[in-house]
Amino acid sequence: MVTEGGGWAAIQKRVSGSVRFSRTWAEYKDGLGNATDSYWIGNDVINQLTKGRNSSLYVCITLTNGTKLYELYNQFSVADETNNYRLFLGGPATGTLGDSMLDTGDSDGDLSGMSFSTPDRDHDRSGSTCAALYNRRGGWWFNSCHLAFLNGPWSPGSWTNPWYPTVTDGREIKETLMMIKPH
Predict the structure, then answer these.
(1) Domains in the chain and their CATH numbers?
(2) DSSP alpha helices (H): ranges in the chain?
(3) Spatial distance between the Cα atoms of 59 and 63, rounded to a whole number of angstroms
(4) Which of 2, 32, 82, 84 suits 44 as a labelling partner, its CA being 20 to 30 A distant?
């Protein structure tokens, strides 16, 4: 991998709807999918890869027209399960995708400090379960509820605001990729 100097570990990849991301806490903990298609590496693994070290997060969305957009966060780590895989994210964020996870201009969209939620384990700040509400159905660090959500349902018309305001409809997405590396 030559992106930003190489040395990245992919923690999430989606290239089709063949892997369903509406999964349980246990499945997100251990990981799901397969490396040749679509997967989530597992929250335990993400915690181990980022524990006690400064890491960066690189998010890339490839649109159906072939355009690649990215955002780079200079600080990224995820706590362990006893802390609900709380997300620690810092900037400044740079790139062509736009910051939809940290400095969103909307406190309900800021994901730093948020715990991971799944349809069967709700840890968001909403009065409802963001991971199960409407068509969200997937695990993520929800606030109330999201401006960024890369694990949404792949089915046409169901995946809303994967990366608001840059990508508002999942039908625009050909591929997503999240990668981390230590500094």
Answers:
(1) 3-182 (3.90.215.10)
(2) 25-30, 43-50
(3) 13
(4) 2
Per-residue DSSP letter, 118? B
The CB density around residue 18, as the number of other CB atoms within 10 Å, is 11
Tokens representing 29 are 């903990």
Asked whether the beta carbons of 2 and 141 are under 8 A apart, the reply is no
- Predicted model pTM: 0.94
DSSP class of residue 114 equals: P
- Reduced to 3 states, what is the DSSP secondary structure of residue 161? strand
Query: Strand, helix or coil at 170?
Result: helix
What is the rounded distance in angstroms from the CA atom of residue 170 to the CA atom of residue 160?
A: 6
C-beta atoms surrounding 165 within 10 Å: 10
3-class SS letters over 50-99: HCCCCEEEEEEEEECCCCEEEEEECEEEECCHHHCCCEEEECCCEECCCC
Cα separation of 37 and 94, whole Å?
27
Q: What is the pLDDT of residues 87-139, one digit of tens each?
A: 999 988 999 999 999 977 777 789 999 999 999 999 998 888 888 875 567 89
In this model, does residue 143 exceed pLDDT 70?
A: yes
88, 79 contact by CB (below 8 A): yes
